[in-house]
Amino acid sequence: MDSLLDNAPCGFLSFTDTGTIVGINATLLELLGYSPGELEGGHIESILSMAGRIFYQTHFFPLLKLHTRVEEVYLLLRSRGGENVPVLANALRRERDGAIVNDCVFVTMRQRARYEDEILQAKQAAEEANRLKDEFLATISHELRTPLTAILGWLHILRTRNPTPEKIARALAIIEQNAQLQAQLIEDLLDVSRIISGKMRLDVQPIDPLIFIEAAIESVRPAAEAKSIRLQPVLDTGVGFISGDAARLQQVVWNLVSNAIKFTPKGGRVQVRLERINSHIEIVVSDTGIGIRPDFLPHVFERFRQEDQTIQRRHTGLGLGLSIVRHLVELHGGEVNVYSPGEGEGTTFTVVVPLMIIHSTLDLAQRTHLRLSTLNQPPQIIQKLKGILVLVLDDEAHVREMLATLLGYYGAEVIVAASAEEAIEMLGHHRLDVLISDIGMAGEDGYAFMQRVRQLPVARGGRTPAIALSAYARVEDRLAALHAGYQMYITKPVEAAELIAVVASLVQRASPE
Amino acid sequence: MAQDILVRNNVKVIGQGVQPMMFAHGFGCDQNMWRFVTPAFEEDYQLILFDYVGSGNSDLRAYNTERYSTLKGYAQDVLDICDALDLMDVIFVGHSVSSMIGLLASIQEPERFERLILIGPSPRYLNDAPDYVGGFERADIEGLLDMMERNYIGWANFLAPVIMKNPAQGALAHELTESFCSTDPKIARLFAEVTFFSDNRTDLPEVTLPSLIMQCSEDALAPLEVGTYLQHHLPNSALRVLQATGHCPHMSHPEETIRVIKEYLSREGSPHPATE
User: Hey, where are the domains in chain A?
Assistant: First the structure.
């Protein structure tokens, strides 16, 4: 063997159809821990793992003989010490010196084998997720059809029979109840779709948790009474304000309490507790219901999951409520946990949400109000942006261009900066009406930038109304931006109508007409 | 119906003889693996070649997880083909797992077959300590399944038709772009599990037909102990240890394979090959 091949950076092996090794280079000998001359005349199986031997006999050799070549075949070799060596093999069958030989090169793939493991696992996980979705689709069609059946059935009765006034009242009540059930299912589905696409938005205001908890309890009271379940609110008054979306938090509590009622047998008890613990509020919903098996507890908050088929038959539902709960609570910077001693032992859900940090210069309620009130008035907005000078600061060129174009459509004049330094410089030279800045930027971020702006004298733009743009949608991110000195906060992806409305409202506030 | 079976199993009938000789491929390949030995029998026999459902160019739509979850389902393929072609007195030549498939078919319908030729057979691949040596532990087979899965990721491209560079066999020119041993990854995995996790030891005494066990020297898939075990437990069987090594003597040592089969077929007491 010439020295070029002998020391090539890959293993080389030549063998006959009978498997006898007729050539092997130094690289392969070294890889497998053999001395020169040791393997020649031996059998190819002596350097293959057990699995590799079967694969060689059932796949590799038949293919090589029939195709005359094989490419990129994964094989497990075996070293002298019994260690598996993963390689990628290419082989060619040809005539040399009057005899047929099979020439084969091996490239090691220890790293790649690990990487492939991860890909295979990801593939399996994707297949599992897909299976769950298929099951979910089956459940959903069933769940959506069930109330529909009741609605259509009663409508048919109303049309074709001659119903008494009592029957009519009864029919209408059932139709309404089922229509509401279906509306709730669709609402849940839309929420899941918003969560998946990252479009779930909160309308954040300072709120007293008592208000939404009591509202949620009131709305499920009839369901509890129908099952003779004792609903016990134990609510501390004056726990303080949290900043959040009242409707969404009511949805969280409603989901937990109605779940508790659903999974608690007649005559049971459901308790809702509210208390303040340090800088958090804690909402605890506990029941005397059927409980949860320990092995299912970790999956309680996963989408499309319900404990098992038997439960599914007894209890309808899509298995979406709790995944929505978790997501909403996390959007509020909080967390939700579940505890159950076991089947038949009841379940306890605990929601923890941070209390609001009161900052004297902020007026959250007013800003939220402004934002909402301007949203539905596009014609005036177009007028409002005429003659307005806006500075856009973003380190992403595409985003800068998109925002400049968008604001330009509505009549604004736009200047752009790619860094905080550049923006500070521009502030000195232009009299800006509004400043829009990205939060997460390379170099100085949007928080530090705004703190510097607010220290500037008024004449150099120190009081320019400012909007923070960020992909983070959590409450603490919003609060951090407001603390840094921004007036408004918009989450990415930016919706045109929202951006324009916010810019317009800021300008209007700064210079009341 | 008969035509459906012939399409389903990609059945090819060749040869000028009368007595049927059926060649059944093993796990991992298809009927193409017989191409080095069949020419030697074309003149004297009617040769029947086929692919099991799920292998080669069979109709994948006919694959049924339940039916093919045991070797009996594969044996039914063999019997279906015998029925479709109305075959009797079949000389069955099975490689590897097909040896057991052939035994099962012969137990079910012995009248169809005249004798069985088993190349590299094994009634059980896993060791069963302390008395039985199959050659493998379960972990070895799981390693094989893993290796198959990794290779099947790119299998479709890998198995794309290639130009056969074999100037010595000009007659194959019309098959230049044929693809060999193509397989569906999911089915191949199930076939591997059925093959390597099966235990047919208790079926052996039920075989009534004479058989030849062709055992290779140094076959990783069927160690010598397995050949000996078979000879002891398979009634009316003869063991022949080949000089050939490996697991595919019909591919690696076609001459010796042909010679041994011919010797066995011409032995006293066997029907003479029919010639027109």
Answer: 3-113, 132-197, 205-358, 375-510
